[in-house]
Amino acid sequence: MKILVPVKRVIDYNVKVRVKADGSGVDLANVKMSMNPFDEIA
Description:
Blueprint: E1 9-11, E2 33-35, H1 37-41
Antiparallel strand pairs: 1-2
GO molecular function: electron transfer activity
Keywords: Electron transport, Transport
Organism: Pararhodobacter aggregans
């Protein structure tokens, strides 16, 4: 049996999120990414 488990990478919850200077979104440069905590439980 084969099982497919989709997971999502999100910004680590210990990292303070920075907004881009123009306000168009989150600055993802040099940000630590981790697995979604709810996906870790699955």
